[in-house]
Each structure stands twice: as C-alpha cells, then as structure tokens.
Specification:
By secondary structure, the chain is mainly alpha-helical. The protein contains 8 helices and no strands. The relative contact order is 0.20.
C-alpha cells in the first residue's frame, strides 16, 4: 500500500509544481510515459510466468523477494501510470482556492485524503484477496494457472497501451 501512496504523492507534487501538465500539453511526453509503462509490463509478465511461488508456498521455504524490491516495483508501476497524473490534474484543481493559502499545501492535503480513502479501499481488497490467494496458492496447479493468467494479462496490457491513444 505504501508504494501506491508514495507514487500518488509523487504525481501530486509533480502536478503542484506544474510538471504533470507536460503529460497533457505535450503529447509526446504522455506517449513516452505510456510506452515506458508498456515496456515495463512484459517484464512483470515474465516474472509471473517464471515465478516459482507455488512450490515456495507449499514447501514452507521463504520467498526471495524483499519488501524493498516489492516497494520499488510498486512505486515504478504507479509512476509509469499516466492515469493517476491525469486524475490529479483533472480533479484537484476544481477544489483549489488560491485565497486559502499555498496551492501546493492544498494539493498535498487532497493527496492525503485520496491516499487515506485508497488505503481503506485497497487495504480491504488486499486483505480479502490475500485470504483467498493463500487458499488458492496452496494448490500448486491452481497457483500455476493463476500465475499464467496474470502473465497473460500483463502481456495484454502493454498491447493496449501501445496501440490505443490516450489523447
């Protein structure tokens, strides 16, 4: 969850400082972020296809993925998602009042509210998915099929990102 929140704050700060506006005003900048995300997703797909998680879950061996590695992957995924930048740019300015003080502070307050709501929603979904996932991953065949399905999704997403214009 923290990686999503850090990514949201990065997008929010970029919007507050006017950097995210590049994604709107310069189509090539938006395309660069979109293609970077499309290039990153096949790597995640490969990791899903080659994951040995089912055997690790069944034999009780600890996983080799560190929390720092998971955190970095989550932040990278969030930062390469132009939709959050567009959300921040489209939503937050409607509630900014220059007469109420620093625009950056106001935007950061909105980001904190967004992150809190996201923590509640995403946290609930994650807890539920974790409970279900543990039960499903206990079955090696099901876990392997789920990894293959996840890999297929992560291969399909970059095709959509690369072929469909965000403009």
């Amino acid at each position: 969850m923290a990686e999503i929140q850090v990514g949201t704050y990065c997008h929010t700060l970029a919007a507050a400082l006017g950097l995210s506006q590049l994604l709107i005003n310069i189509p090539d900048a938006c395309d660069a972020v979109r293609f970077a995300g499309a290039a990153y997703l096949p790597f995640i797909a490969w990791k899903a296809f080659t994951s040995s998680a089912p055997s690790k879950l069944t034999d009780g061996a600890p996983t080799s993925t560190t929390l720092l590695c998971i955190f970095r992957q989550g932040v990278a995924t969030n930062l390469l998602n132009p939709k959050i930048a567009l959300l921040v740019l489209a939503l937050f300015p409607q509630f900014i009042d220059p007469s109420k003080g620093s625009m950056v502070a106001q935007i950061l307050i909105f980001a904190t509210i967004l992150n809190f709501i996201g923590l509640l929603v995403n946290g609930s979904v994650s807890l539920l998915a974790s409970k279900i996932g543990i039960k499903l991953a206990a079955n090696v065949k099901i876990a392997k099929r789920l990894n293959q399905l996840l890999g297929a999704v992560f291969l399909g997403l970059p095709c959509r990102l690369a072929l469909v214009s965000e403009r």
